[in-house]
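Entry 14. Ran structure prediction on the chain below.
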Amino acid sequence: MAKGKRHKSLVLETIPENLLREPIEYIFADHYRLRQIVASLDGFLAADNFAADIDEEVRADLRVILAYLEDELPLHIADEDEGLFKFLGERCRGDDETKQILLVLTDEHEEDFGLMPPVTAGLKSLAAGEAVKEPQKFIDAAARFVETQRRHLIWENNIVLPLARRHLTPEDLENMGRQMAARRGLDYPA
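Output, structure tokens:
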């Protein structure tokens, strides 16, 4: 980092457990965190430094990104695929447009999992102060991940979550919240 330039560290807020009682809002809150991850990863890619001599502050950010991608993104995707999309698909059975959107988003989740190995391998190397072994593979996968996540977040925040707010029943929401809590090893909040 250039002298005199301040680095703003990446800090992800913890989502309060009681928000599991409002699972759509929990997912929306996690979308905000995912936007932070995507913006930070995109900024790092734009800096074009994939060697071992990265500042410790940047390496700390890369560790935050890596932890999110390895630990929290799989939970988030399961929340959507096994909860949000499933319940919404059931409530919107006759709506072919909604079904098509949910299929596209589910396919993108599959693509995300395919992109993760080169992305996480590169982040692990850089966070440990080592050069990326296959920099072009890392760059291509990370750039594709950034691109798909930006589009994915727009669709979900502007189409899917509003549909869920309109169509999901209180029972759907409670079941969804209970599943999300169980996925995290938490008790459903009283």
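DSSP finds five helices and no strands in the chain. Will compare against last week's run tomorrow.
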